[in-house]
Design goal:
Blueprint (H helix, E strand, L loop, with lengths): L2 H11 L5 H9 L5 H11 L4 H36 L1 E3 L5 E3 L3 H7 L3 H21 L6 H10 L4 H30 L1
Antiparallel strand pairs: 1-2
Helix pairs in contact: 1-2, 1-3, 2-3, 2-4, 3-4, 3-8, 4-7, 4-8, 6-7, 6-8, 7-8
Length: about 180
Amino acid sequence: MNLIETFQNLVAQVPELVQPLIVALAGAIPFIEGEGATAIGIIGGIHPVIAAIAAMAGNFLCVMVLVLASSGARNAIVQRNRTRQLVTADGATATDPTIAEIDAAHGSARKQKFQRAFERYGVPGVSLLGPLLLPTQFTATMLAASGINKARVLFWQAIAIIGWTTITAIIVGGALSVVS
């Protein structure tokens, strides 16, 4: 039994009041997110609007926590690097390498793909198109960790989560109404 089937079975077994909480919990999991959680809820018997709202809430709350944490971590690292100085062999002082220099030395393929997309589409494009390639949690964390204003990241992630989850709810809800 996989994770999605586990959530579907759980939704079907708990009281109606608890079902949206299960959907919200599923929405907080990368790769399930709002879209998958909405489908889980609708297939589990929850009204599509309630399933979508619960999935959006779970997905966004997780994204918000990750954005705040990664933005705070980045700020702490940048602040530390600004204040720390190294003494070179000849006695002169030099500052630590910047985050950009460290990142350039340790670039990964996924990070380079993200960087190319960011340069091409900006925060709105990466947020809105990101779910096609990566979970919103990953995209939002990378945006915040790269120094983008956390309010801007959260705004565009909210728009993306609402949009993609609504589209999924319409498709799954419509498909189920046709089948039944």
